[in-house]
Amino acid sequence: MDRWLIAGLGNPGPEYSGNRHNAGFMVLDELAARAGGRFKVHKSRAEVLETSRAVLAKPLSYMNLSGGPVKALCDFYKIPPERVIVVHDELDIPYGALRAKLGGGDNGHNGLKSITKALGTRDYLRIRFGIGRPPGRMDPAAYVLKDFATAERKDLPFLVDRAADMVESLMDRGLEATQNSYHPLDLRISGPPR
To answer: Which range marks the domain in which residue 96 is found?
Structure first.
């Protein structure tokens, strides 16, 4: 069976662990917990956990250089871009909303920009974890490096859990079925996926 590469984006180090920019790392930690495994440092400059159907990876290169480790892992495990799922924070989606998509632009997200350049294609799957726009005139670059607000943190475990469900759904059921199940659902709409 062909493996998947699931790359969660973030910045390494405890000072970043609660940042909005580290939503991808949070989702990967949930997937690792579900798999009952632990991340180990890999020569690709990423923390990696191998499962029977996927390689879970957290690049250790800092966000703006995520492409190097992702490409190295694709080469090492012989995984084509169409079997790559990148989990990342997204400013253009409100907090509480999660979206799955294939390809598209990077919306100024330097992690995606780096991965697209390294892979030579935009055609990889993404789970977009909505963090919303910064308040007032706050610089988006400063906003993403701040921890989730106290009010947001109460819903964060639920959203991380649901984003992990979406990753599993992409692998099991494909993009269209995942979008149909999860896109109508955001935090403001309760209930399980249809």
So the answer is: 4-182
